[in-house]
Every structure is written in C-alpha cells, then in structure tokens.
Write a structure and sequence with these properties.
This protein has about 120 residues and is an alpha/beta fold. Helices cover about 25% and strands about 30% of the residues. It is built from four helices and five strands, in the order ββαβαβαβα. Strand 1 and strand 2 form a beta hairpin. Helix 1 packs across helix 2.
C-alpha cells in the first residue's frame, strides 16, 4: 500500500537528532501521481492494483499496460449501512464515473461492497 506522504523535519532536541512528522502534506497520492509514487517506492508496475475513485484510474491503467498478467480491482463503496456509500471521495473529491466506465470497458473486476461482501467488519 502506497499512499500520500506527509512531510518530516530533521530537528536537534537536547543534542539528539530526530525526525518529526509535520502537518504538511508532501505528496497527495491521487490521479497521475499514483503510478509515479508506486514507481518511486518499488520501481516496477504492480501486478495487482485496486482503486475506489477516479483518483486511482491512472494507477489501474498503468498496471493494466503491463505485458504480463495483472489484476485491476475497483472497490465501489455502496453499503451505507455497514461501511460507506459514496460516488465521490469524501476527502479528495474524486468521483467514480471514469473509473467505473473504464472498468466496464476493459472488464476489470468491480467489487460492490453491498452486493459482494457478506461481512465487512467482523464481530470480535
């Protein structure tokens, strides 16, 4: 899992060196930045990629362009009772129209949270 990256600062406190996480976001891992971040961290295309909004589309397209077999998963959040139901990312605002259309066109696997998952949060 490769996500957004928060900034860290180097500080000396009482002559001890430390890295301190700040509130600043260094990289928002969304859209075309996703495949770039993956390449930066692991240096190769993933063989399995999963996204849930249009912000993950470039990553799925990049994974699918491999000459080898890959798996593209789209998680569609449709279960407002047990999990979440949204067609627009509540934080980044990305929609799901493009990713769902592209999944249908290329026959990628779409996971419908309400229809495909018997249990989302298991009881302890």
């Amino acid at each position: 899992m490769i996500g957004s990256v928060g900034e860290t600062e180097f500080r000396l406190r009482d002559e001890r060196a430390e890295l301190v996480k700040t509130a600043k976001i260094e990289i928002i891992n969304d859209g075309p930045q996703k495949p770039r971040s993956i390449h930066q961290h692991i240096g190769q295309r993933p063989i399995v990629a999963a996204g849930n909004t249009d912000g993950g589309l470039a990553m799925l397209q990049w994974a699918a362009a491999s000459p080898y077999r890959t798996l593209q998963l789209v998680v569609h959040h449709t279960d407002g009772d047990r999990e979440y139901a949204y067609d627009r990312d509540p934080i980044l605002g990305s929609g799901t129209g493009q990713i769902l259309a592209t999944a249908a066109e290329h026959k990628w696997t779409v996971i419908d949270m309400a229809a495909d998952w018997a249990t989302i949060h298991p009881d302890d």
